[in-house]
Amino acid sequence: MSAEYIHLGSNTLTGQVPKLPIHISRLDLSSNSLSGSLPSELYAPALEDLMLANNQLTGTIPLSIFQLTFLYRLDLSGNHLEGDIMQCWKESDANSTSQFGWDLFSLALNNNNLTGQFPKFLASYNNFNDFLLKENSKSFGKLKHLDLSHNKLDSVLVEEHFAGLSNLEHLDLSYNSLILAINQKWVPPFRLKVARFQSCQVGPNFPEWLKGQSNIDVLVLGDANLDDVVPEWFWVTFSRASILQASGNKLHGSLPANLRHMSAGYIHLGSNKFTGQVPQFPINIARLNLSSNFLSGSLPSGLNAPLLEELLLANNQLTGTIPSSICRLTRMKRLDLSGNHLEGDIGQCWKEFDANSTNQFGYDMLSLALNNNDLIGEFPKFLQRSSGLMFLDLSYNKLFGGLPEWLPQKMSHLKILRVRSNMFSGHIPKSLTFLDSLHYLDIAHNNISGSIPWSLSSLKAMMTVVSQDTGDYIYEESIPVITKDQKRDYTFAIYQLLVVLDLSSNSLAGQVPEEITLLIGLTNLNLSNNQLTEAIPNQIGDLRQLDSLDLSFNEFSGAIPSSLSALTYLSHLNLSYNNLSGAIPSGQQLQALDNQRYIYIGNPGLCGDPVGRNCSTHDAEQSGLEDIDHMPSDYLAMSIGFVVGLWTVFCTMLMKRTWRAAFFQFVDMMYDMVYVQVAVRWAHMMEKTQDGAP
Description:
The chain has 694 residues and is an alpha/beta fold. Helix content is 16%, strand content 22%. A hairpin with a 2-residue loop joins strand 34 and strand 35. Helix 10 (633-655) packs across helix 11.
């Protein structure tokens, strides 16, 4: 083949990368399913573009790549390449005539498994300092795009590592074990537009060398070990940046009043130590995350951010009511005000706009979290317009009234519903069964009464084993989950893997419908602290995915189903304080559970090793009781009648003296009559005996 340009990217090609045509100048095989190692001999002296990104390539980077001296762009990202990144350059540099990198404009080796130190691109690996000062210092001088993120590089970086990269505009070193030991007074030779240092050790001091990088449009300093006050120049230097991300540090101080004048569309400063009030938002902001700080006071009353789609202010110390201006943010897709001290009527903000038919707040809502506040009111009716809502958390408030029947009709895409620890009452709506996507239902700690509707067994998302696809959950924050008697934090992605039905601590009564065992995808089933009766469903063992099962503090009776031993994933079980009886089932998983006595305590009718009661002795004791229990009804009736009749006569004589005298007179008379009759008969018999004697 003599082609100079081959572009077969974004197809379904398989197999290995073939040897390259000698005259080829551009090769794009990215986003296929190519596998195996790269060819050890890549002889294509005219090659300028080599793009093999997003395949399944393995092995090391062949040395022959570094003989391609006219390369303009090299993209090997998104593969499984490994090996010491420095060793490749060291061995290739043994050839002093190699001019690899002189024309290189873009180098992307990100998302691989490369190890070793950060490559000293400008260095003669035998004598770094001497090489740095000589004519070869202009190699890599044309490099504008450098992405080494998501590897396993381990280095301490100093100014010299970047000294020759005068044209560098895009630098991404995220997710490596890199330490930037840069002098605070260093003046970089480049003017960056994109700077990403996520999970690199940049701090503890805020990097002063960024002060002159006013061209930066994207700045990422998340989890960078920063422990400092954000300097005033930061807000000025990056006032025109579109993305500012510095979450997961220990940055402190207050947010500036001029935040509203910034151009950023995305600001993520969550999980820091910022204090003070929440300022007015930038007018162009689309995503604002200030969660998990120490912000206090009321929310701004006149929010003017018409493009805002995501507002995260969770886990602060905010007070007051939800301002009505939030309801003007009609593009809102995700709102999280959880974990604060907000109060007032949950629906007041939206009630003020009911008369305005043009208000579209809630139409695009995908996720709403108002949990862990002091909000009052009924289930918010404005959610009837949120047809695309997938996540709703109203738990730990003071909401009352019933759960609405319109949930499936108006929020048909709902996947997660948490309303625990409120004051909701009434019955469980039977219509919930039509929420086909619902895989997490938590209505615990309310005043819900009635029986568990058998229709819950038709929740489709709980009837199948959950897939590993977490594509719908793109959010990084964690959410508390009550499971195994503990509060645990899970990310949205992990939430997708949880299939939960928690009806605990209500006033539910009656029998648990056998159909509940059709929900074979359940990982957590909690029915504790209710008034449920009769037997545990016999097919409970069909719930093979169960990790946690809590049926404690009810009135269940009968034997523990033997199918329970089939729950091989079970790590938490609580059957305490019921009326269960008989032998405790055995099984490897059941016997491996912790706190065996606690699991079954409060069930005096149970026997077996976990409760220290021998079943044979226990059965003998029970059999005596069972004989009484199974006595024929005729005998039982006769016995009861005899006792009742005897005591009726006895009590009557005891209470009436005349009856008592008559009774004993009758007894004396009967005694005399019997005595006379016996005496006469006896005398007559004796006479006959004597007459018949010889």
